[in-house]
Amino acid sequence: MSGGAEQSIAPGHHSHGGGGHGHSHGLVDPAIRRSRAGLAAVGVSLGVLGATATIQGAIYVTTGSVALLADLIHNFGDAATAIPLGIAFLLRSERAERIAGLFVVAAIFISACVAGVEAVSRLINPETPTHLWALATAGAIGYLGNWIAARIRTRAGRRLDSPALVADGNHARADAYVSLAVIASAVVVALGLPIADALIGLGITLVILKITWDSWRTVRGHHAH
């Protein structure tokens, strides 16, 4: 995105050569149009991920799975990243978008830390998850919710040339595969290996840390340009 988008924030009235009249009929400033598109993408993905995490939270209360807990913590964190991104698009500021990108990276890292602590705690004090069909369903819901959010964010990010939105889209796509690990946990526990739930939770933590690094490189790499 060039600086031209920021320079065109002024109301849409440029002189029209020959006529000399204000040129405001039906034209929308490119920066405003970009802002609206960004806000729409962020808002819809926030709704999708918020609903996904809420449903997973209700199922976690029933199952007690640490793999599911790691996934839903991350999904809530992912939904929350929509707030700084939305503010950045509202302000129509490229600098605010870069700062929002850093918030995205920080949120991913914090969710990894919380999930890791819970997984280690469950390894020390083992508990066997219950209601395994519900657990597998929660994993499927997590996959679907993240896949939808990833498509919304990545498409909009590329169209609007927003590295923060692209990073968040890549993040949600990776989260979709993380949610499949919750289904794997239900299967392995059903086979008689309850400790696998905590190990899978730890594995999810490592994947989230990898996502943190990749997102950092996306945001920082664009900043270098």
Could you characterize the architecture of this molecule?
There is one protein chain. The protein is mostly helical. About 80% of the residues lie in helices and about 0% in strands. The protein has 8 helices and 2 strands; from the N terminus they run αββααααααα. It has helices at about 5, 30-65, 65-80, 80-90, 95-125, 130-160, 165-190, 195-225, and strands spanning about 15, 20-25. It has a two-stranded antiparallel ribbon with strand order 1-2.
What descriptors fit this protein?
225 residues; mainly alpha; Alpha-lytic protease prodomain-like; two-stranded antiparallel sheet; 8 helices; 2 strands; 2% strand; disordered N terminus
Topology diagram in text:
Layout: H1 4-7, E1 14-15, E2 22-23, H2 30-63, H3 66-80, H4 82-91, H5 94-124, H6 132-160, H7 163-190, H8 195-224
Antiparallel strand pairs: 1-2
Helix pairs in contact: 2-3, 2-4, 2-6, 3-5, 3-6, 3-7, 3-8, 4-5, 5-7, 5-8, 6-7, 7-8
Brief rundown of the structure:
With about 220 residues, this protein is an all-alpha fold. It is about 80% helix and about 0% strand. It contains 8 helices and 2 strands.
Q: H/E series, N to C? A: HEEHHHHHHH
Strand order of the largest sheet: 1-2
Query: How far is the first residue's CA from the last residue's CA?
Result: 10 Å
| CATH architectural type | Up-down Bundle
Structural class by secondary-structure content = mainly alpha
Q: How does the major sheet shape up?
A: 2 strands, antiparallel
- Proportion of helical residues: over 70%
Regions with little confidence, pLDDT below 50 for 5+ residues = 1-26
Shape: elongated
Total beta strand runs? 2
Mean pLDDT: 81
Q: Supply the number of helical segments.
A: 8
**Tally of distinct domains:** 1
Strand content bin = under 5%
The CATH class is identified as Mainly Alpha
Give the CATH topology: Alpha-lytic protease prodomain-like
Radius of gyration of CA atoms, rounded to a whole number: 21 Å
